[in-house]
Amino acid sequence: MQDLPKYKKIILFDGVCNLCNGAVQFIIKHDKKDIFRFVALQSDLGKEICNYIGVDQTKIDSIILYNPGVAYYHKSSAVIEIANDLGGIYSLLSVFKILPEKLRNYIYNYIAKNRYKWYGKKESCMIPTPELKAKFL
Predict the structure, then answer these.
(1) Which residue, 3, 72, 79, 121, has fewest beta-carbon neighbours within 10 Å?
(2) Number of structural domains, the chain?
(3) Is residue 4 assigned to a domain?
(4) What values do phi and psi take at 56, rounded to 5?
(5) Which branch of life, at top level (predicted)?
């Protein structure tokens, strides 16, 4: 697998989903500690990472947070971990850990299932601006 940046957490996201792209833009804006790098699930590297961590990409309808050599999270757990890493007020989302993961993921899956209908879809993955290119693998 391609050399991944050391000490960075990788967020794999649906590159054609407007909601997902909006979430990526939000995370970039609030990632003051430069923790995250981003990879579209549809990209070759996205597929390679999914294969490496054992996630069947044909059955994944989720954001994935991959901390190389440590762990990976998906669905609501990924959202909570990302918010916690952003710190500040966003870390308050950790309170949702008290809910059973099955319940959290039920809500997450409902949003994921309707995301194209509610937020739309792009024809292709977003192309980062030159300023943001270093954030994408």
Answers:
(1) 3
(2) 1
(3) no
(4) -75, 105
(5) Bacteria
The closest alpha carbon to 62, from 101, 8, 6, 5, belongs to: 101
**Is 2 part of any domain?**
no
* pLDDT tens-digit series, residues 25-62: 999 999 999 999 999 998 999 999 999 998 887 777 78
Q: Taking each helix axis from N to C terminus, what angle separates 18-30 and 75-86, rounded to the nearest 10 degrees?
A: 30
Phi and psi dihedrals of 65, rounded to 5?
-110, 120
The residue segments making up the domain with residue 58 are 9-129
| pLDDT tens-place string over residues 65-110 | 999 988 999 999 999 999 999 999 999 999 999 999 999 999 999 9
What is the rounded distance in angstroms from the CA atom of residue 100 to the CA atom of residue 72?
18
pTM of the model: 0.89
Query: Considering the domain boundaries, does residue 49 fall inside one?
Result: yes
